[in-house]
């Protein structure tokens, strides 16, 4: 069953965040993921929500998503992302 990684990012250091993106994009692809949203296209329709970025990445299943997120390869990038942004990250299974 398809799984989705959804990230809300309030970027605090644009240069560091760009370095994170440069490294994470090919890694996501190697784990079977693909971006399904574009940067800057989110619109808040109701409520108070002000992220700089919203991203949705589709993975073949929750196993692949978790393998990427918990991989040794990704862990250094977690620290880089956290030093460059305040984030809310969730994983959800599709139907």
Plain-language structure description:
- The protein is of the alpha+beta class.
- The protein has a single domain (3-41, 51-93), classed as 2-Layer Sandwich (Alpha-Beta Plaits), CATH 3.30.70.
- Helix content is 37%, strand content 28%.
- The chain has three helices and four strands, in the order βαββααβ.
- It has helices spanning 14-30, 62-69, 75-84, and strands at residues 3-11, 34-35, 53-59, 85-93.
- The chain has a four-stranded antiparallel sheet with strand order 2-3-1-4.
- Helix 1 (14-30) packs antiparallel against helix 3 (75-84).
- The radius of gyration is 13 Å and the shape is globular.
- The model has no long low-confidence stretch (mean pLDDT 94).
Mean pLDDT rating: 94
Specify the CATH architecture: 2-Layer Sandwich
- Summarize the helix and strand pattern as letters: EHEEHHE
Structural class of the secondary structure composition?
A: alpha+beta
Number of strands: 4
What gyration radius follows from the Cα positions, in whole Å? 13 Å
Label the overall shape.
Answer: globular
Distance between termini? Answer: 7 Å
| CATH C-level class | Alpha Beta
Taken as a percent bin, the fraction of beta residues is 25-35%
Percent in helix:
25-40%
Low-confidence stretches: none
Stated plainly, the CATH topology is called Alpha-Beta Plaits
Strand order in the sheet with the most strands: 2-3-1-4
Largest sheet: 4 strands, antiparallel
